[in-house]
TrEMBL record:
<dbReference type="InterPro" id="IPR028068">
    <property type="entry name" value="PIRT"/>
</dbReference>
<keyword id="KW-0472">Membrane</keyword>
<keyword id="KW-0812">Transmembrane</keyword>
<feature type="transmembrane region" description="Helical">
    <location>
        <begin position="89"/>
        <end position="107"/>
    </location>
</feature>
<protein>
    <submittedName>
        <fullName>PIRT protein</fullName>
    </submittedName>
</protein>
<dbReference type="Pfam" id="PF15099">
    <property type="entry name" value="PIRT"/>
</dbReference>
<feature type="compositionally biased region" description="Polar residues">
    <location>
        <begin position="17"/>
        <end position="31"/>
    </location>
</feature>
<feature type="transmembrane region" description="Helical">
    <location>
        <begin position="52"/>
        <end position="77"/>
    </location>
</feature>
<keyword id="KW-1133">Transmembrane helix</keyword>
<dbReference type="GO" id="GO:1902936">
    <property type="term" value="F:phosphatidylinositol bisphosphate binding"/>
</dbReference>
<dbReference type="GO" id="GO:0044325">
    <property type="term" value="F:transmembrane transporter binding"/>
</dbReference>
<dbReference type="GO" id="GO:0005886">
    <property type="term" value="C:plasma membrane"/>
</dbReference>
<feature type="region of interest" description="Disordered">
    <location>
        <begin position="1"/>
        <end position="31"/>
    </location>
</feature>
Length: 130
């Protein structure tokens, strides 16, 4: 015979109570992104920290690749190793650098759209909730 499931506080619940409970809405509410649904203003660092980090890492890797590639011109031992790894670091650094630099205007555009959307929502609620 199957026992009904127990809740965390130790009380037993019937299957009908489990189905009619508000766990579905709780899961739905917790799955929403907090930054989208709250109107709290965020600092510039909170908004742009990821692309800034990507640009910084990309620039560092690009410079490292430049140094390694230039070592192949000056050092004669392990010349082929420098010639293989230098361009790899150059391309990886350049890729990260460009991705970060493209990411920043995308974030700016999303911020402008969000501001317009919030303004239109407040305007709509002002006229239709009278």
């Amino acid at each position: 015979m199957e026992m009904p499931p127990k809740s965390p506080d130790g009380s037993e619940k019937s299957p009908q109570e489990l189905v009619t409970s508000n766990t579905g809405s709780t899961l739905y509410m917790s799955s929403r992104s907090e930054s989208v649904w709250t109107s709290a203003s965020r600092s510039k660092w909170d908004i742009y920290h990821k692309p800034v980090i990507v640009v910084s890492v990309g620039a560092a890797i690009f410079l490292f690749g430049t140094v390694i590639t230039s070592l192949s011109c000056f050092l004669t031992n392990n010349k082929y190793v420098y010639k293989m790894t230098g361009p790899a670091f150059l391309s990886l650094g350049l890729m990260l650098l460009v991705c970060g630099l493209v990411w920043i205007p995308i974030i700016r555009k999303k911020q402008k759209q969000r501001q317009k959307s919030q303004f239109l929502q407040s305007l709509k609620s002002f006229f239709f909730n009278r």
